[in-house]
Amino acid sequence: MTTPIALTIAGSDSGGGAGIQADLKTFSALGVYGASVIAALTAQNTRGVFGIFDVAPEFIAAQMDAVYSDLAVDATKIGMLSRTEAIEAVAAGLDRHKAKNIVLDPVMVAASGDLLLESSAIEALRRELIPRALVVTPNLPEAAALLGVPVASDEAAMEKQGKAILALGAKSALVKGGHAEGPQALDLLIDKEGVRKFTARRIKSKNTHGTGCTLSSAIAAGLAKGLSLGEAVAMAKKFVTAAIEASDQLSVGKGHGPVHHFHALWKKSGSQ
C-alpha cells in the first residue's frame, strides 16, 4: 500500500493557526502524510504578526533536497515566501526534483492585516512560481496585488483576473471570494477548459485565521490522494467550510482564532 504524501513549503506560525502548522494539521485530518520545508519563522498569535525571521535560501534548498530525495512527494503546497531569494531557491528546488501537483497560495497579508511579503518579491512570485504551478489560489486582495489592479467587486472581474493569472503561466487559478459580501462564498476555478464555480454558505465567524492556508493544503492533500483538480477543490472547500463552522467550538487566543482542522476527528474520539 502506498502512502499519500504532501509537502508544504511555507512559514511557521508560532500560534499554530496558519502556515506550516495549519498545513500539517490539514494533511493529517485528510489522511495524508505531511512533510515540511520551513521558509520563515514568525512570532505570531491570533492578534497579529510581531516578527519575521527568514530562513537562509541555502537552508531552504537543503530542506527541499532532504525531503524530495527520500520521500515520494505526491503534491507540494507553497505558502508564505517573504523574500525574492527564498522564492528563487524554491523555484530551483522544484525544478531540480521535478515536483508535481504544485499548489501555490500567494500569501501576502495575514488575517490580522499584517504584510507578510516584501513588495519586491511580488514580481519574483509572478516570474518564478506562477508558471510552475498547477493551480494558484489567491483571495481577492491577493489576486489584485499579483496583477496590479483593483480588487474584484463581482464575478466577471474575478473571472477576468483568473484568466490574467493564467496568462502569467499558471495552468489554473482558483480565485477565492471569501472577502466578498453576500450569503454565498463563491470561488472560481479557471483553466484552459473554462470556468467552474464552487459555492458554500457564508459563515459569520471571527475565527478565520488560517483559512487560505487550510484550503490550499486541503487541495494538495486531495491531489496527493489521486483526486482530479476539480475534485480536490470541491473536497477542500467542503472541508474548510466545516472547519470554519466548527471553529467556535475552540477557545484559542483573543483575536482571530483558528479554524477547527480536526472537527470530524475530535467528535469521533470524544475530545470535545
Explain what this protein looks like in three dimensions:
There is one protein chain. This protein is of the alpha/beta class. It has a single domain (5-269), classed as UDP-N-acetylmuramoyl-L-alanine:D-glutamate ligase (3-Layer(aba) Sandwich). Helix content is 39%, strand content 22%. The protein has nine helices and nine strands. The protein has helices spanning 19-29, 57-70, 84-96, 121-129, 140-147, 155-167, 211-224, 229-245, 263-269; strands at residues 5-13, 33-45, 48-54, 75-78, 102-104, 135-136, 172-176, 184-191, 194-201. The strands form two sheets. A six-stranded mixed beta sheet has the order 3-2-1-4-5-6. A three-stranded antiparallel beta sheet has the order 7-8-9, sandwiched between helices. Helix 3 (84-96) runs parallel beside helix 4, helix 5 packs across helix 6 and helix 7 (211-224) packs across helix 8. It is globular and about 45 Å long.
Secondary structure topology:
Elements: E1 5-13, H1 19-29, E2 33-45, E3 48-54, H2 57-70, E4 75-78, H3 84-96, E5 102-104, H4 121-129, E6 135-136, H5 140-147, H6 155-167, E7 172-176, E8 184-191, E9 194-201, H7 211-224, H8 229-245, H9 263-269
Parallel strand pairs: 1-2, 1-4, 4-5, 5-6
Antiparallel strand pairs: 2-3, 7-8, 8-9
Helix pairs in contact: 1-7, 2-3, 3-4, 5-6, 7-8
